[in-house]
Amino acid sequence: LEEEKKISLSFRIKPLDLAGLGESKLRGKAQELWETIVKLETEKYDLEERQKRQDYDLKELKERQKQQLRHKALKKGLDPEALTGKYPPKIQVASKYERR
């Protein structure tokens, strides 16, 4: 697992070639790396906020569906808790013991 991690990181992370660079070029390289970090952090923040918003929307939609099913059950005269369960409510068409 550690070897796989090192191999994948070696493909993604490029080694820095800082040998023979002057002070101004080093400052430029540092500024470039800083801008890359800032860009990645802003993308990360945007994605986290988007995830939070999507989670909230999902909770709202589930709650709305639950309320609609409850209202539907009350209209039909069924137990509202039966519709919110894992399985739909059983509807009896005819009596189990009565034959004609």
From TrEMBL:
<dbReference type="InterPro" id="IPR027707">
    <property type="entry name" value="TNNT"/>
</dbReference>
<keyword id="KW-0514">Muscle protein</keyword>
<dbReference type="GO" id="GO:0006937">
    <property type="term" value="P:regulation of muscle contraction"/>
</dbReference>
<feature type="region of interest" description="Disordered">
    <location>
        <begin position="74"/>
        <end position="100"/>
    </location>
</feature>
<dbReference type="GO" id="GO:0005523">
    <property type="term" value="F:tropomyosin binding"/>
</dbReference>
<comment type="function">
    <text>Troponin T is the tropomyosin-binding subunit of troponin, the thin filament regulatory complex which confers calcium-sensitivity to striated muscle actomyosin ATPase activity.</text>
</comment>
<protein>
    <submittedName>
        <fullName>Up</fullName>
    </submittedName>
</protein>
<comment type="similarity">
    <text>Belongs to the troponin T family.</text>
</comment>
<dbReference type="GO" id="GO:0005861">
    <property type="term" value="C:troponin complex"/>
</dbReference>
<dbReference type="Pfam" id="PF00992">
    <property type="entry name" value="Troponin"/>
</dbReference>
<dbReference type="InterPro" id="IPR001978">
    <property type="entry name" value="Troponin"/>
</dbReference>
<dbReference type="InterPro" id="IPR038077">
    <property type="entry name" value="Troponin_sf"/>
</dbReference>
<dbReference type="GO" id="GO:0045214">
    <property type="term" value="P:sarcomere organization"/>
</dbReference>
<dbReference type="GO" id="GO:0006936">
    <property type="term" value="P:muscle contraction"/>
</dbReference>
